[in-house]
Amino acid sequence: MHLNEKIAKFATRKLLNNHIIMRKNIVAGNWKMNTTKVDGVALAQEVAALSEQTPAEVGLIVAPPFTHLCAVGKALAGSKVELSAQNCADHVKGAYTGEVSVDMLKAVGCQWTILGHSERREYYGETDEKLVEKTRLALEAGLGVILCVGERLEEREAGKHFDVCASQIENVLYKFSAEDMKKVIIAYEPVWAIGTGKTATAEQAEEIHAFIRSRIAAKFGDEVAEDMTILYGGSCKPSNARELFAQKDIDGGLIGGAALKAADFIEIAKSF
Ligand code: PEP
Fold this sequence. Notes:
By secondary structure, this protein is of the alpha/beta class. It has twelve helices and ten strands.
């Protein structure tokens, strides 16, 4: 993107009917079930050190496995990189073996939790109803929520991708207030692009990001929609991030595989 186009993009973001648009560019790394604690701390230290090379206005988040949240949080201390969980329980506390509550996440320094990742929807029966509960508990505890939405390959081939994303957003986020939306990020992740090496084209991604923003506007108004950060996820890497992030409604990425290499993750964060 030429400097003039960059300035134009920035300028169009700045004002909407005298409303200063607050949305932030963010790159978040979902480490999934990867790294031991030792490897995870080393990766976090590298990300924290390299984060100084990224533009001040770009936010960085990493989401390690539960077992290393505490240690990774310590490794990130003093850097701009924020800490996220990959999931949380749909209950406050009690007899829910194997679950981790929002208060536990807060207590180890999490600022965010990812919710509704397609792997959780697909393999662990995560329903929109459960996601409403999880989102409610997370927001009440003061955690920000990165809500993942996206269609499967067969749904895209059947032309249902708009409907799928609309219902995932409406079933969950429409249960909350405009004020709550200040602590929510949406990640559009087409399931067919996750870990497959197939990326949505910038045009495909922009089309659905703009649609998602319009669904937020329909419920909460234009200002809330313009302030909402909407990330793209699905085989995003240094070689394609620039083109994706140049789109008007793509405000960054939720990164899986490429987040496991600090240099790649940081290179992506330098792609705005
Ligand atoms: C993800 O799982 O959130 C993801 C985007 O993975 P990948 O970047 O590996 O496709």
